[in-house]
Amino acid sequence: MKKTSLFLIFSFLFGNIAVSAEAQQVIKVETPVVATVTEQTPDEKMKDFFHSEEARVCTELRTFAKEQIFSDQKFMEAARDRSTRRVVKAASKYAKALAKDYDADFVFYHPNTRFFVRINDKNYRGRMRLPADLIDSSSACFWERLPSQDLVYSVLMKIDGEKTGYLKISKKLTRMVGNIPDALSQYGKVRIYTALDKTGLKKISWFKMRRSEPNRTKYSGWCTAENLAFLTSIGTGESLAKKQQKKLLSMSDQTGHFVLPELNLSGGALSLSGLNGQRLGAVVYTLDTSKKNKSADASSEEKEDPVEEENTENILYRFFD
User: Fold this and answer.
1) Pick from 86, 92, 94: which is nearest to 111 by CA?
2) Which residue has the higher pLDDT, 256 or 80?
3) Where are the alpha helices (DSSP H) in the chain?
4) Residue 71: exposed, middle, or buried by beta-carbon count in 10 A (0-12, 13-18, 19+)?
5) What is the pTM for the complete model shown?
6) Using CA atoms, how far apart are residues 111 and 182, in angstroms rounded to an integer?
C-alpha cells in the first residue's frame, strides 16, 4: 500500500510539473502577411465612383422628399384628394429647390400608373406606364428614358395612403457625370462623353435635345453605323473631331475597354440599362496616354472642314425646330 501511495504521489507531482512547463512554453504564431492593396484601374475607378454617385443621388432625393414634400400638409391633402392641380401647386416650390440645390431636372406627379404630369410645366402631361415591379414598392431608383427622349436617373416614391399616387424626381444623365472628371484626374487628362442608345430613339428628337444641351459635343453628328449617339462631353482632355468621335463611338459600342494608339488615347465605357435590362445609354471616358500635348496632326484623317460641318449641323437644327 505504501509503495502504491508513493507512486501515485510522485506521478501527481511530475504530472503537474509537466503541465506547468507546457503552460510556460511560448507559442509562436506566424504573423499573417498583409495583402498588398492593388491600385484601382481607371475602369474600376470610374464604375465604382459612378455607382456611388447613383447611391448618393438616390439617398439625397429620397431624404428630401420624405423630410420636405411628404411632411407638407397641403401636399398630402391634395394627394389624398387626387387633385392634380393642387398637388402641382403645393410641390412647385420644392421643385425649384431641387433644381437649385440638387441639380434635379424634373419633378413628376403620377396620379396613377399610366398618367403623369410634370411639376412647373402646364403643358407637360402624358402617358407612360410605370414598370410593374415598382407598383407595390415604396421607393425605387432606376434609369429610364422619358417620352421627351431624355435619359434620366429617377427616384420614384409612393405617397403614403391609398390611391395617392407617386412622386418622381429625375436627374439627367449629363448632370450625373459632372464629378467624374475630377475622380479620374489622377490618371491624366480625361474627357467624359455621354451617349444614348439609338434603339427607339427618334432622330429629330435627338437633334432637338442635343441642341439644348449646354456642353454639347462639337462636330458630333448622328452616326448611322453604330448603336450609340453622342450627347455631350466634359473634362480637361482634348475634344475630338467628328471622324475621331465616330471611331471612339464604334470602339465603345463594341467593348468596355479600348485603346486608340493613333490618337494616344485609352478609355472605357459603362453601359446604362433600364429595369427591363435594355441598354439606354452609356458613359464613355478617354485618357490621354501621351506625355506631350497632341497637336493638330491627330486629326489628319479629318478631311472635311470642321467649320463647314458645324454650319451644316446648325442648318439641320433650324430645319428641325
Assistant:
1) 86
2) 80
3) 2-24, 42-64, 73-80, 84-102, 173-176, 180-183, 203-212, 242-254, 306-320
4) exposed
5) 0.79
6) 40
176 Cβ contact list (under 8 Å, min separation 6): 50, 53, 54, 57, 153
90 vs 69: CA distance, rounded Å:
9
Do 194 and 177 form a contact (C-beta atoms < 8 A)?
yes
**Per-residue confidence (pLDDT) for residue 32, from 0 to 100:** 52
Read off the C-alpha cell for 11. Answer: 506521478
126: part of which helix (H) or strand (E)? strand 125-127
CA 318 vs CA 129, 306, 310: distances in Å: 33, 19, 13
pLDDT of residue 37: 54
Which residue bears the cell 480637361? 236
Sheet holding 228-235, edge to edge: 228-235, 190-197, 279-288, 265-273, 257-260
Q: What angle do CA 301, 307, 310 make, to 5 degrees?
A: 100
Nearest alpha-carbon partner for 97 in 123, 64, 74: 64
Encode 150-208 in three state secondary structure. CEEEEEEEECCCCCCCEEEEEEEHHHHCCCHHHHCHHHCCEEEEEEEECCCCCHHHHHH
Question: What pLDDT does 316 receive?
Answer: 55
Task: Quote the DSSP letter at residue 59.
Answer: H
- Is residue 272 a contact partner of residue 302, using CB atoms and an 8 Å limit? no
Give me the amino acid identity at 35: A
Q: CA-to-CA distance for 109 and 121, rounded, in angstroms? A: 12
* Cell numbers linked to 170: 429625375
For residue 242, report the phi and psi dihedrals to the nearest 5 degrees.
-60, -50
Please answer whether residues 119 and 98 qualify as being in contact, where contact means their C-beta atoms are separated by less than 8 angstroms. no
Q: Which amino acid is at 277?
A: G
